[in-house]
Amino acid sequence: MPQENEDMTIRIEKVLKLERAHGYNDDAVTCGLEKFIQCNLPDALPLVVGYSQKGRFDRQRAVLRLLKHLTDGAKLKSKASDPRDLLRPVSQAKGIGAKRAAMLEKIGIATIEDLLTYLPRRLEDRSRFERIGRLKQGEEVCVRAEIMAVDQIRISQRMNVVKAALGDGTGFLYAVWFNQPWLANQLHRGNEIDLFGKVERNYGELQMRSPVWEPAGEGMEIGRLVPIYPATEGASDRFLRTLIARNLETYGGSFYEVLPDHIRNEHGLLAKRDAVRTLHFPVDSETFEGARRSLAFEELFLLQLGMAATARTGKGRAHADSGKLVDSFLAHLPFTLTSSQRSVAREILTDLRASTRMMRLLQGDVGSGKTVVALIASLYAIEAGYQVAFMVPTEILSEQHALRFRALLSDLPVRMALLTSEEKEKDKVKEQLAGGEIDLLIGTHALIQEDVSFRALGLVVIDEQQRFGVVQRSLIEEKGEMVDLLVMSATPIPRTIALTLYGEFDVSLIEEMPLGKKKIRTVWIAESRRPEVYAEVRHLLEKGGKGYIVLPLVEESEKLDLKAAVQVTEELSAAFSCFGVGLIHGRLPGEERNRVMEAFRAGEIRLLVATTVIEVGIDVLDADFMVIEHAERFGLSQLHQLRGRIGRSGQSATCFAIAEAKTDESKRRLIAFATHLDGFSIAEEDLLIRGPGDLLGTQQHGFLSRLRAVDMIRDLDIMTQARKETRVLYSEGVPPTLMAEVERRFGEMLKWLHV
Predict the structure, then answer these.
(1) Is 335 left (phi over 0), alpha (psi -120 to 50) or beta?
(2) H/E element holding 581?
(3) 452 contacts 442 by C-beta, under 8 angstroms
(4) CA 641, CA 464: separation in Å to the nearest integer?
(5) Could you tell me which of 682, 608, 610, 690 has the C-alpha nearest to residue 641?
(6) pLDDT tens, 240-256?
(7) CA 621, 590, 633, 510 torsion: positive or negative?
(8) Closest of 232, 226, 230, 258 to residue 245, by C-alpha
(9) Is residue 747 left, alpha or beta, with left meaning phi > 0 and alpha meaning psi from -120 to 50?
(10) Which terminus of the chain faces fewer neighbouring Cβ atoms within 10 Å, N or C?
(11) CA-CA distance, 562 to 558, in Å (whole number)?
(12) pLDDT, mean of residues 166-183
């Protein structure tokens, strides 16, 4: 077979050279060049589509690209080398010294393998050539022309211009470059060059300002779909392109197949070395996407193998009880569960009855009713004779849960307690807990202290799980044996990410809102119009409204921000004295915080100034407006969480985001916030704007950045296929070489996937 491939390559090359010798008349083979390539080199067919209808110039370009495609493929096959070469430091790659290696490491390129799998962020079509005489102002296009003259002009001490006059027999074009004087020594009269840029008409001339250029027919920067890479200071996009191409020629043959052949064939995936090369030299956008998906499948397949090997699911306790406690709770609820809540509750209770340990992620938007579902699960475990730990990230949220749970469970025989760092009777609570006198313990990270012990911990519920560190989450699980685990998040995670980070978890989603679609109007308004906002606040208060003024709090300047919060409260107290103004923040003593919140609930305080301590857990049902000061300082998911504090009874509400967006990212964030009310839409926008960082903890974000080819929004189908293949292979036995690759690629990072 290798000999046949080699013979075919020689034959194709002969045909192409004959076509060139015949003046590109499409007569080198009787069937025509396009049909010949379709039969003998199908992966290069896009290069020659419509060949018989093209003019001589375009035919010449097509043949040159075919020859280059053929040559590059042969080079890659002939340079098969030791896979260990890919693990060498990037400083040993061609064209890189120590200084450039340090710059590349800043963008995650530490090895030669990292360099060759550094993916473009987009493709730019630089394949369309046009004659100068047919150029239109405003179009971006490629031109091949002869240099007629080159001139260098010093306009000022800081401005140097190189101007080249170019012609192709149909007209003249002037290329202009600013402050690049060295170009005058590179551009020579009589040479033919290719250019790509935007056509302008200035001073009666057709011009391209700062066009991309290269010698005619070189085909690296012009005449193809050009990959555009994420660049960094000292490592430009063009530098990266040249560097990758140079090292791909040397080391591209070092890639070896990771996926078993039957899996690769089943899913139509490219060979690894072909996929890598296609990413950097795509024939068209379809082949690029096919190569990306091939590498994405490999990444997700290896990830799922690693997850399966370290999974914590296994034998658990089957919670057998009558369900009378849950039935009694539901009968006395002052509201009816949504069908989505009932469905998710059934899933969780089925888990608790099984002899396999429950590992479930419960997602739902702000106000969707996750807490009530978690309380149902808690009651089921309690009736079965086990204790429940309900861990939350903040003291104010733990206090709010305790207050609400006491009201909901007042008629039930459930012994409940609160444990926080401020709790006065901590020692008594710990003693009762160890003696089995407490069924449900609500608390913060205080629950993981060494001297906190449970008599029979059966279920752990972690609310706002993304706010806890990995160590904190594992410590609470270790308080019992074969503990069932339910983690909840109101920061929606796109399903592909959820399955990536929580591969060992079953995922449940509450899709309905108890009170129907939210009726919150969100307005992004400039700081210069702040007086208008507070005039509207006065109007809302006069109509009987109640709401929040939210101030940002930055840890590094907490004291300064706290001082500002106090000052703002004093100013608002003077301006709105007849409505009652209060202040709440994280450093406020617990008793004072509870007093302020009770006054706000009762309506004695109608305007509550707050830091982001209210982001989660505040459940004042009649609050109907919010002003977020300096909204550009908040993340998108944080803004959405804050907004979730208003309109909680289904009433119409208004959220004002006062901000001066000074960066494109902050503008996109604020536009998304004002446009979307749905948490999953918010999460996807956040992912598009910033990547996974705002959705996940730092370590998990670092892990996801290692998935170079995966598109976390679009690749759910690949994830599903990879998971299925992983489970089949894992049940049959995983080859040691494959597990070694999992360890090499992900290694220690796998532990950060566990919550």
Answers:
(1) beta
(2) strand 581-584
(3) no
(4) 11
(5) 682
(6) 998 998 898 888 888 98
(7) negative
(8) 226
(9) left
(10) N
(11) 6
(12) 94
| The length of the chain, given as a count of residues | 755
* pLDDT for position 697: 46
| Residue 666 backbone dihedrals phi, psi, to 5 degrees | -65, -35
What CA–CA distance (Å, rounded) separates 94 from 340?
Answer: 58
Query: In which residue are the tokens 């082949």 written?
Result: 287
Q: What is the pTM of this model?
A: 0.64
Would you state the torsion angle of the CA atoms of residues 137, 138, 142, 143, taken in this order, to the nearest 10 degrees? 20
- For 433-452, write each residue's pLDDT tens digit: 999 999 999 998 888 888 89
**Run of H or E including 196:** strand 192-202
The neighbour count for residue 493, using CB atoms within 10 Å, is 25
* Distance from C-alpha of 575 to C-alpha of 113, rounded to nearest angstrom: 63
Task: Check if the beta carbon of residue 413 is closer than 8 Å to that of residue 381.
Answer: no
Q: Is 571 helix (H, G, I), strand (E, B) or coil?
A: helix
* pLDDT value for 57: 74
**CA 212, CA 630: separation in Å to the nearest integer?**
41
Let me know: does 199 contact 133? Beta carbons within 8 Å.
no
Q: How far apart are CA 672 and CA 680, in angstroms?
A: 12
CB atoms within 10 A of CB 736: 8
Helix (H, G, I), strand (E, B) or coil at 164: strand
Instruction: Tokens 């063009």: give the residue.
Output: 238
